[in-house]
Amino acid sequence: MPYRAWIDAARQAYAPLANPEYAVNMAAYMKRIAPYLGIQTQARRAALKAAWKPLAQLDQPDLAQLVQKLWRLPEREYHYAACDALDWYRGAISADFLDDPVRELVTTKSWWDSVDSLGTVIITPLVNTYPELIDTMWDWNRDENIWLVRASIQHQRGNRDETDLALLLAMCEPHIANKEFFIAKAIGWALRDASAYWPNEVQEFIDRYPGISSVARREGQRGVDRALRN
What we know:
Blueprint: H1 2-14, H2 20-29, H3 41-52, H4 60-72, H5 76-89, H6 98-106, H7 112-129, H8 134-141, H9 146-153, H10 165-172, H11 181-195, H12 199-208, H13 214-229
Helix pairs in contact: 1-3, 1-4, 4-5, 4-6, 5-7, 6-7, 7-9, 8-9, 9-11, 10-11, 11-12, 11-13, 12-13
């Protein structure tokens, strides 16, 4: 199966780059959500690119197998490798990939690094390509899993002036007073990004909800203040 060659190549690429000292520090920074090999981002990506470029291309079922198998390996760099693989193939993935396997990746070994990376490389691109997936984002927004909620709130990050502001605010609204840090932070960052283009609308939204969590208010207000100064 072609995906196995990609996993073997990742292992071989990582082996000479592992740094136990970095590994300890990286795991501590990420609250020990997973062990690390101790490979820094630039070196990791360069090694993977060189190792994967000569290999046979993957179809979508093989890509799904690859990212799931990488995610089951213990070290965090393999989870990042899964995100890199998704980034490579982002233009050739169908809508159903969001439900399986991306949902599983979001909810497995979850921390802000993996969830936000998945948002950038696959969730946002898929929703932009297949607008019907907004229904899935609403399903995630109503879920009890905080990481699905975070991913739904942030699913338009990076869209700049093409952000659907009404949709973004609507997805923030049900969680506006949520004190869960990673949800509140997601709201704050979403508001901060939107404020670069719609500072008055974001300010109005913040003012409308006096019970907004302090974390979300701080981040959103910071963006508004910066936009209005400029």
